[in-house]
Design goal:
heterodimer; A: Uridine Diphospho-n-acetylenolpyruvylglucosamine Reductase, domain 2; Enolase-like, domain 1; five-stranded mixed beta sheet; 11 helices; 15 strands; 26% strand; B: 159 residues; Ubiquitin-like (UB roll); DNA polymerase, domain 1
Chain lengths: 297, 159
């Protein structure tokens, strides 16, 4: 299987890459780790005339804590995220989820920004970025702008990025005390995109009241989905069994699954309900300081 | 379409090539440079038979353009044996009957090599997670996992 022939452009800087994208227009595609783009090109689902490779640009790969948030450079590989002790201590949900992206070899090549910009419905970065209310910093010819994760995923493989913009950085506000999160993903085979996945990040007070919560759903719609109604059903409530069950049922209704060979719409809704309930209990356990495992169901 | 000049080091030897940008790394290795150890299995980034080590990290060479490997160092299965002596991972695969048809073996061995370079003493679960990206259609996983743990022991006792 071979991609269509294309012109290859190696960029040395972000400014140079942006110049190429503006000049070449719709015929150009950005190459980061290539773990989604190259299979699509080989299957001829994508056939760009120009490839603008970001691989040679220095300074796009980092994970750091600054000014009350965590900043992830767009070219950071999934492996670096999975192995980051900073993320493990601040946001256990992130390495837990990103350790399930594809397989070892895919995580060695694939990047944070590439995955988000690809906009796959069943990705792991999608629901996690929604649960954490990540801000995505995009750069374009006119400067930069920040896009909230919930405004980012527009349609099937379609994001809010313009053709001449690049995703440069992912910003996540540091959590207040008594916060934690978890990720659960249902697949039939290790390494697959999610049949359904739920990411949740929660903050509670000492009395067990939910002060804040973010819920992201993967694999159950044309895009990753932020379960805003389920969030509203939890926020401000004392997190009881009944409140949790109710929020999970609401999340299932917010899912809009496309049936395929891996699962019917009904099955996927049911999965959202079960995973949402379970993932909340894992997050709550972690807030209490318990070592609870999430990950694959 | 204009060709790109690239330079790669494979198993300690430098090579230069002029390639079409769409040339996949696996085909640079197999067709242009003669390293036929890495295999093309699925060609869709599932099976891992094409796995090689790129600057210390395992990658699927069917899901990478040769131009992306410019200036980098590649290790293939051919680079493991030293002076005619098999690498301990290869010996352990042999002794534990960790291959039947052998098609997946070059990729399995390179994934094992990467895993053990990061974690010299993996649990059975960690070995299984470590070879998630490699499929064996003879379903010989049991002995493959055994071989990787055996190899880990051999490499630790040598170190």
């Amino acid at each position: 299987m071979y991609p269509r022939a294309f012109e290859y452009i190696r960029s040395q800087s972000v400014a140079e890459a942006l110049g190429h994208l503006s000049r070449l227009g719709e015929e150009a595609k950005v190459l980061a780790g290539g773990q989604s783009l190259i299979p699509m090109m080989k299957l001829r689902l994508a056939g760009p005339s120009y490839i603008v490779d970001l691989g040679g640009i220095p300074g796009l790969s980092y994970i750091r804590e600054e000014d009350g948030h965590i900043a992830l450079g767009a070219f950071t590989r999934h492996r670096e995220v999975e192995e980051s002790s900073l993320l493990r201590s601040r946001f256990p949900i992130i390495p837990e989820a990103i350790g399930l992206v594809g397989d070892v070899q895919v995580r060695n090549m694939g990047t944070v920004g590439g995955s988000l910009a690809h906009g796959e419905m069943g990705s792991d970065w999608g629901p996690v970025s929604l649960a954490l209310n990540a801000q995505l910093r995009a750069v374009g010819p006119g400067g930069e702008r920040r896009i909230a994760a919930k405004e980012f995923f527009l349609d099937l493989y379609t994001t809010a990025l313009s053709q001449n913009e690049l995703l440069a950085e992912v910003l996540i506000s540091l959590p207040p005390p008594n916060s934690s999160g978890a990720y659960l993903k249902m697949v039939r085979r290790a390494g697959d995109f999610a049949v359904a996945s739920v990411a949740m990040q929660m903050t509670v007070d000492d009395g067990g009241k939910c002060l804040d919560v973010g819920i992201g759903l993967g694999g159950v719609g044309l895009t990753p989905i932020k379960a805003v109604k389920a969030e509203a059903a939890l926020k401000g409530e004392k997190v009881t069994e009944a409140v949790l069950r109710n929020a999970a049922a609401i999340a299932a209704q917010e899912a809009d699954p496309v049936p395929d060979i891996r699962g019917s719409a009904e099955y996927r809704r049911e999965l959202v309900k079960v995973l949402c309930y379970r993932v909340a209990n894992i997050a709550l356990g972690r807030i209490r300081g318990e070592a609870v495992e999430g990950g694959y169901v | 379409m204009s060709k790109e000049k690239i330079r790669v080091r494979v198993n300690g030897k430098d090579f230069e090539a002029e390639v079409e940008p769409r040339l996949l790394l696996i085909d640079l290795l197999r067709e242009e440079l003669g390293f036929t150890g890495p295999h093309v299995g699925c060609d869709t980034s599932n099976c891992g038979a094409c796995t090689v080590i790129l600057d210390g990290y395992s990658v699927k060479s069917c899901t990478m353009f040769a131009v992306q490997a410019h200036g980098k160092e590649i290790l293939t299965i051919e680079g493991l044996a030293q002076d005619g002596k098999l690498h301990p991972i290869q010996e352990a695969f042999w002794d534990n009957h960790a291959l039947q048809c052998g098609y997946c073996t070059p990729g399995m061995v390179m994934s094992a090599y990467y895993l053990l370079s990061r974690n010299p003493n993996p649990t059975e679960y960690q070995v299984r997670r470590g070879i998630t990206g490699n499929l064996c259609r003879c379903t010989g996983y049991h002995n493959i996992v055994k071989a990787i743990q055996d190899a880990a022991g051999r490499m630790r006792s040598k170190a």
